[in-house]
Amino acid sequence: MRSKIVAGNWKMNTLVSEGVELASSINRFFSDNKLAPNVKIILGVPFTHIDACVKSVDYTKISVAAQNCSQYEKGAYTGEVAVDMIKSLGAQYIIVGHSERRQIFGETDAIIAQKLANCHKNAIFPILCCGETADERDDGSYFDVVKNQLIASLCLTDQFNILRTVVAYEPVWAIGTGKTASPDQAQEMHKYIRKIIAEIFTQNIADQISILYGGSVKPDNAVELFSQDDIDGGLIGGASLKKEDFIKIYQAI
Ligand code: PGA
């Protein structure tokens, strides 16, 4: 059975002290309450917060993720952070290819493919993001856009490592906008993503991959989204910065 995942993406928010307080309060909830079976909680924090957040949570219940990594392994890349550096702090996941990285920082599928390869080489789980823009949704090309993103970004990933990869479908038009994909729209795309993974790899592999939905997930829409067959959880931006909302979204799974 594939895992259910509730992952927060804090983006560039909170000072370290505030992040530690948020991580600690989420951790307190899971000390007082049993984590539901087959559910994983992941906190995607800024690089500067990884060490302190890893130390603030019970790693058997909560994992910490970085939000990005370098496509390079080491060397003269001023300002970059390598996967093994992230791993050495105790993070277990890295969000790769978020649309903000693609759109604002010019990340291509080729760069993302290399980042995935670095994650796999270091036994850290990438959360691979994909999704179409508003224009691509409107002009009807959204299935092809997501298919091409998946094929190109998974070109260095083999059958062993795809099973160590989480996929997140995040329609760009729904991120931070308050506009959520309807449960039907999201389910339709998640089913399609699973079909593409089955075509690249096998159906058996596709059935084991957790595919998360991201884009304005809130406590009031999470139940319906998470009840869809191919939606295995969420990648939560804004609502992950409020402990109560994040916990309510977890409770929706
Ligand atoms: P949002 O962000 O929940 O604030 O829309 C999701 C994301 O960017 O991962």
Highest-level CATH class: Alpha Beta
Average pLDDT rating? 97
CATH topology: TIM Barrel
CATH superfamily: Aldolase class I
Percent in helix: 40-55%
| CATH architecture classification | Alpha-Beta Barrel
How far is the N terminus from the C terminus? 15 Å
Taken from the alpha-carbon principal axes, the silhouette is globular
Q: How many helices does DSSP assign?
A: 12
User: What Rg do the Cα atoms give?
Assistant: 17 Å
User: How do the helices and strands follow one another from N- to C-terminus?
Assistant: EHEHEHEHHEHHHEHHEHEH
- Structural class of the helices, strands and pairings? alpha/beta
Provide the list of bound ligands, each named once: 2-phosphoglycolic acid
Low-confidence stretches: none
Which strand order does the major sheet show?
1-2-3-4-5-6-7-8
The biggest sheet, with number of strands, parallel, antiparallel or mixed sense and barrel status, is: 8 strands, parallel, barrel
How many separate domains? 1
How many strand units? Answer: 8
| Percentage of β-strand residues | 15-25%
